Amino acid sequence: LLSHFSSIGFWGLVNNAGISTFGETGWLPMETYEKFADVNLLGSIRTTLAFLPLLRKYKGRIVFMSSIIAYFTLGNGIYAMTKAAIEKFCDALRLEMKKFGVQVCIIQPGNYARSTKIQPPLSAEEIWSELSEEEKAVYNKEYVQERANFFNSILSEGSANGNEVVDAMVHALTSPAPKARYMVARLKEKALVFVCALFPTVVMDSVLSYALSK
């Protein structure tokens, strides 16, 4: 693969692959955590390492698909943890690549669930059937149904304008002066990130707890 590209040049790499799911921490087995880390985090690292020699040689671009969920979580902590990890990997890589003329960009979309279909609607019955006996002793079906309804409502509110994210990716790849981060999100989503970044954690926890209680 590398020998093939080395004859024609190599400019850009976009790490876009990702999977998502919903569930409180104890609801998900260790195998699911491992799968998410492997796809969302290690998958991007694998492709980056594979193409790094060519990207350095041709002073190319590396674009990573993160999410505003790297800053906070609303029932999908497993997805948020992988995006937060990608952010830190990119921060290190961006600084290291400056001396080679390679630019590293992060795309941070808001809720585009209707565009990407990354997460199908969740069935409370399916979630309940997969819970361990220990978790079933702590929670009840009504609570699981409430959480599923909440998360499904978030999915249904997702933007259908996926082209907005694609435009950011194109800009990151082709602009003479690409941004380090492209936050492509609605105003209320940006406001949540703003609160998370600038206010004490207790404030953000109160905001998210209120949202989760609705």
TrEMBL record:
Presence of the UniProt keyword Transmembrane helix in the record: yes
SUPFAM superfamilies the record matches: NAD(P)-binding Rossmann-fold domains
Transmembrane segments: 62-79, 191-212
InterPro entries in UniProt: NAD(P)-bd_dom_sf, SDR_fam
One matching Pfam family: adh_short
Alphabetically ordered keywords of this record: Membrane, Transmembrane, Transmembrane helix
Family that this chain belongs to: Belongs to the short-chain dehydrogenases/reductases (SDR) family.
Protein name (record): BDH protein
Source organism of the structure: Polioptila caerulea (Blue-grey gnatcatcher)
Gene name as annotated: Bdh1_0
